[in-house]
Description:
The chain is mainly alpha-helical.
Amino acid sequence: MLAVELANRESRSSWKDFMETLKARGLHGVEFIVSDHPGLKKAIPEVITGVFWQRCYVHFLRNALDYVPRKVEDHCLRELRWMRSIAEVRRDLAGWLAKWGVKYPNLTGWVEENIEETLTYFRLPLAHRKHMKSTSMLERLNEEIRRRTYVVRIFSNGDSCLRLVRALIVERHEAWLEDHRYLNMDLLKEHKKEALRQAA
Length: 200
């Protein structure tokens, strides 16, 4: 965990301020960011250059529900859940667009326009993809924070809220350090070397 701050909303300016604080503290070498916040997506290029952004795939699937009637056929959205090679995804996407385009034109138009930002994780080693295609790990942490702060209900001020949340984050951070590694960064190094060999 790098930092915890309070903000009134998750706007571009809030995220920009947050990232500039991290950068001032020495954050560098960021290559990949996965999120579900439009504000963060807009702020990234203003603070960090050369980074790949991955739209959370789970949120993408949830957002897709906004573009279909309430009684959408289950297998229409089920077919949007890919976890194979990028070539297979592109082939399946073309078939899916052709199959559902007439029945759900709003959905297929939206998917065609937004699908690329959900496929960034294919740039990563295979073992990293399932972890980095969504914000599920962070969502679990947010649920725990919500559960623990709900007990308090009303904080006397922002600082009291931050003290509790930061204590929870420190607890989780230490657990992550002691648990098995979530991502093996040696795999990423080898993946980059292989990409350079293929580019040469």
